[in-house]
């Protein structure tokens, strides 16, 4: 029996011409040597070459020999009256169906009773309503298909992960699913051969994969010695090429370094204790017996404990005692863990969702930790106050106390020297300051003023040609920008802040102070400021190539930016924004990201400008509320425009709009289409859902090269993920950046924040009150919740 597409065949076969043992199985029809993917009677071979597969009226499959004794049966039955039929599908699934015109009902399928091979479309895992569990069972030995010792399963005790068991004991576990993949398999990436899925629902939990091109064969097999290998059939070489292996190395073996030990394949010996812990039994540990692992240097005292963050590691095993909640924030998770003395560690569950990424907690010893190249997931281990992050600064890297003393004393000497030098410098500067004060400069707050770079008003007036209208480079929400040339020939951009954006003197100075310190290649540099009377002026480096809107919204100039250039610009913006959100000391929300605020340097690199008066969020604050919404229509996220709540996610929204504008060459605001009243976001989204988003790509990048299309579609996809209505659904900038530069399968975007826009109003900054009243006529959302 051959499947309809000719991929698989079902029949009787013998192993190695041994006619005394014959099996009923399924194999790839075209592949030589014969590759069997499923065997019915693995434990009961027919003892002669004649066998009969029979289907009963009730839909039971029976495997009989000459004497009508049963060697295997399918374990299916029904009371249905239709005549059941058995079919071999082209997926390699043997099914028993009752089919009449009205209904089709599968009574039984071989995919529910796997052999040692996971085929595309098979579900590895559990059906929680029927109680059916699908595991792979190894062969006893290469020539003997009977059940061997090893099992490959989706372990659903704790947060699900793939595990290999030898009998009852675990020999390998992949680490839990983290939203992208199983945490300990960095090699598991979306690729050009297959897509993989992890489904976690009330009714069922499973892992599965599907082929992107059904004529490229791939199978995932558990060998008789307990190794899972994915093979891909190479037509050229007529052989199976190994693609991924589990376990992959020494450190993949389960709990290799014992509790609190971490395994590093590149080290010799490979096992090390986590920082803050020491070998439990040093003699054993030194003789390469790591099974007892490590123990904390300082004992826990419950109420006085803290946490230490670990990065670059595979998360501890969740199989034993872990607890999870997939909607809790990380902060809440930390508190919960802190308040329960038996909680030993916590982590975010899902690296995609970040802020609401769920909570995973461990009770008990932490095992199966290893160093990984690309784990992307941190965890926090309970440590005594002494060993936790608050006290980390003095901790030397090596565990030898003598070293620490030497390091410590040299640090002490250096610190004393630095103190002396600063004291001298400070006294000198203080003298200078007194001198300045004598000249009539009467600012308070001495320390701050000392290193704030000031420009003289007279210098700026002459540089900017008396702020002539000819020198105006642009006008933004915060004021007008003039081009200036300093006496030494340096070109600068001078921003004269408008009255609305004026703040208190101290507030202004402290903001300038910290913005001056922000340095990143994708941010325009603030050189200094000028304060005179009511004037507040900021001085930036000058960007010769104007701003992004000058190019992308113009048909002719748009041609100067081909797709590779645009992609570099998108990545540049993402990096700059990420720096503001994450890497700089203060977490900064830009609040007015738009094409006009992305400047281009002489090599067309993107530089974000106008973050000068962006609000910074306090260290661990995630969102803040403002009475004044500043920003630009078309780029404002719903929660910011309507409720005045801004967060890094409102910047992500603006970034998404910007990406879609860069790809389409159209402004979100004022976009119109004869067929509907959607704005650009709504228009792109509907085309995307219909799989037609290439239609909207800007003409000047669409023609240049067909091979760019997949990258362009990916950018649209990421853009749509960034403009999703709910801030929680939007990715963080770091994740958006990763998605842009990877080949992962991306989640399906939900509906964008704003879908329809009528009666466009000019771009302005506006106070919250005006926004709210204007809002009623300008913006309506298709499906308000
Ligand atoms: C057949 O079904 C019965 C009852 O549903 C179950 O107990 C038994 O384990 C099944 N046998 C096989 C081989 O699946
Ligand atoms: C699928 O793979 C076959 C064989 O490698 C190839 O000839 C064919 O073009 C591929 N189809 C697609 C849609 O990529
Ligand atoms: C999970 O966390 C959310 C948010 O903190 C909470 O509302 C919910 O009750 C929690 N669920 C469980 C089962 O603890
Ligand atoms: C701490 O967590 C354990 C394990 O979930 C639980 O049994 C215990 O009740 C918790 N204790 C407190 C004080 O919440």
UniProtKB/TrEMBL annotation:
Residues 1-109 form the Bulb-type lectin domain. Residues 467-745 form the Protein kinase domain. Keywords: ATP-binding, Cell membrane, Disulfide bond, Glycoprotein, Kinase, Membrane, Nucleotide-binding, Serine/threonine-protein kinase, Signal, Transferase, Transmembrane, Transmembrane helix. The chain crosses the membrane at residues 405-426. It comes from the Eukaryota. It catalyses: L-threonyl-[protein] + ATP = O-phospho-L-threonyl-[protein] + ADP + H(+); L-seryl-[protein] + ATP = O-phospho-L-seryl-[protein] + ADP + H(+). PROSITE patterns: BULB_LECTIN (PS50927), PAN (PS50948), PROTEIN_KINASE_ATP (PS00107), PROTEIN_KINASE_DOM (PS50011), PROTEIN_KINASE_ST (PS00108). Belongs to the protein kinase superfamily. Ser/Thr protein kinase family. This is Receptor-like serine/threonine-protein kinase. It comes from Stylosanthes scabra.
């Amino acid at each position: 029996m051959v499947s309809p597409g000719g991929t698989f065949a079902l029949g009787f076969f013998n192993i190695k011409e041994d006619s005394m043992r014959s099996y009923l199985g399924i194999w790839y029809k075209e592949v030589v040597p014969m590759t069997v993917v499923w065997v019915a009677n693995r434990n009961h071979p027919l003892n002669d070459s004649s066998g009969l597969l029979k289907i009963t009226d009730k839909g039971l499959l029976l495997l009989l020999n000459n004497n009508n004794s049963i060697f295997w049966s399918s374990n299916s039955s029904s009371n249905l009256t239709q005549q059941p039929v058995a079919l071999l599908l082209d997926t390699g699934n043997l099914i028993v169906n009752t089919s009449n015109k009205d209904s089709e009902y599968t009574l039984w399928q071989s995919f529910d009773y796997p052999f040692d091979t996971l085929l595309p479309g098979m579900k590895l895992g559990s059906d929680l309503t029927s109680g059916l569990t699908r595991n792979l069972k190894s062969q006893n030995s290469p020539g003997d298909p009977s059940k061997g010792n090893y099992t490959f399963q989706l372990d659903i005790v704790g947060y699900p992960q793939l595990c290999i068991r030898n009998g009852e004991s675990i020999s390998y576990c992949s680490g839990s699913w983290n939203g992208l993949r199983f945490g300990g398999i960095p090699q598991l990436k979306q690729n050009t051969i297959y897509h993989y899925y992890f489904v976690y629902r009330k009714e069922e939990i499973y892992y599965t994969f599907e082929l992107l091109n059904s004529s490229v064969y791939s199978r995932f097999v558990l060998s008789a010695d307990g190794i899972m290998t994915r093979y891909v059939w190479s037509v050229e070489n007529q052989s199976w090429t190994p693609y991924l292996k589990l376990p992959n190395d020494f450190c993949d073996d389960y709990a290799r370094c014992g509790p609190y030990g971490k395994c590093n394949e590149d080290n010799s010996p490979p096992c090390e204790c986590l920082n803050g812990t020491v070998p439990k039994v040093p003699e054993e540990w030194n003789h390469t017996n790591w099974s007892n692992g490590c123990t904390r240097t300082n004992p826990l005292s419950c109420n006085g404990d803290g946490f230490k963050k670990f990065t670059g590691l595979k998360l501890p095993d969740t199989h034993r005692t872990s607890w999870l909640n997939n909607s809790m924030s990380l902060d809440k998770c930390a508190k919960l863990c802190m308040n329960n003395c038996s909680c030993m560690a916590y982590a975010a569950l899902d690296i995609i969702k970040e802020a609401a990424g769920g909570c995973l907690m461990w009770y008990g010893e932490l095992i199966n930790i290893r160093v990984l190249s690309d784990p992307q997931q941190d965890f926090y281990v309970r440590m005594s106050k002494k060993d936790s992050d608050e006290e980390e600064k003095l901790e030397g890297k090596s565990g030898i106390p003598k070293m620490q003393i030497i390091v410590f004393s040299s640090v002490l000497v250096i610190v004393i020297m630095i103190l002396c030098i600063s004291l001298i410098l400070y006294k000198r500067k203080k003298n200078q300051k007194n001198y300045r004060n004598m000249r009539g400069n009467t600012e308070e707050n001495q320390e701050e003023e000392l290193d704030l770079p000031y420009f003289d008003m007279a210098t700026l007036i002459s540089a900017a040609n008396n702020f002539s209208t000819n020198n105006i480079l642009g006008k933004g929400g915060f004021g007008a920008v003039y081009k200036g040339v300093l006496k030494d020939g340096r070109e600068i951009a001078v921003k004269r802040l408008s009255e609305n954006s004026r703040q208190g003197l101290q507030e202004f100075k402290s903001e300038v102070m910290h913005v001056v310190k922000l340095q990143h290649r994708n941010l325009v540099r603030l050189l200094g400021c000028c304060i005179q009377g009511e004037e507040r002026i900021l001085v930036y480096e000058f960007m010769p190539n104007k701003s992004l809107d000058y190019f992308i919204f113009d048909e002719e100039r748009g041609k100067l930016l081909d797709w590779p250039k645009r992609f570099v610009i998108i990545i540049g913006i993402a990096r700059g924004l990420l720096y503001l959100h994450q890497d700089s000391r203060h977490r900064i929300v830009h609040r007015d990201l738009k094409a006009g605020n992305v400047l281009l340097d002489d090599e067309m690199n993107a530089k974000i400008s106008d973050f000068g008066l962006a609000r910074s969020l306090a260290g661990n604050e995630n969102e803040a509320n403002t009475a004044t919404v500043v920003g630009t229509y078309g780029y404002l996220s719903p929660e910011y425009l309507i409720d005045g709540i801004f967060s890094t996610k409102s910047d992500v929204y603006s970034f998404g709009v910007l990406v879609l504008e860069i790809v389409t060459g159209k402004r979100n605001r004022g976009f119109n289409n004869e067929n509907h009243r959607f704005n650009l976001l709504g228009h792109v989204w509907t085309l995307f859902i219909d799989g037609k988003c290439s239609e909207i790509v800007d003409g000047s990048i669409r023609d240049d090269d067909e091979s760019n299309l997949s990258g362009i579609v990916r950018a649209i996809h990421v853009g749509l993920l960034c403009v999703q209505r709910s801030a929680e659904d939007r990715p963080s900038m770091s994740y958006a950046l990763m998605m842009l530069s990877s080949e992962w399968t991306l989640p399906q975007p939900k509906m964008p924040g704003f879908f329809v826009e009528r009666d466009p109003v000019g771009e302005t900054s506006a106070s919250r009150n005006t926004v709210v009243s204007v809002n009623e006529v300008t913006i309506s959302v298709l499906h308000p919740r």
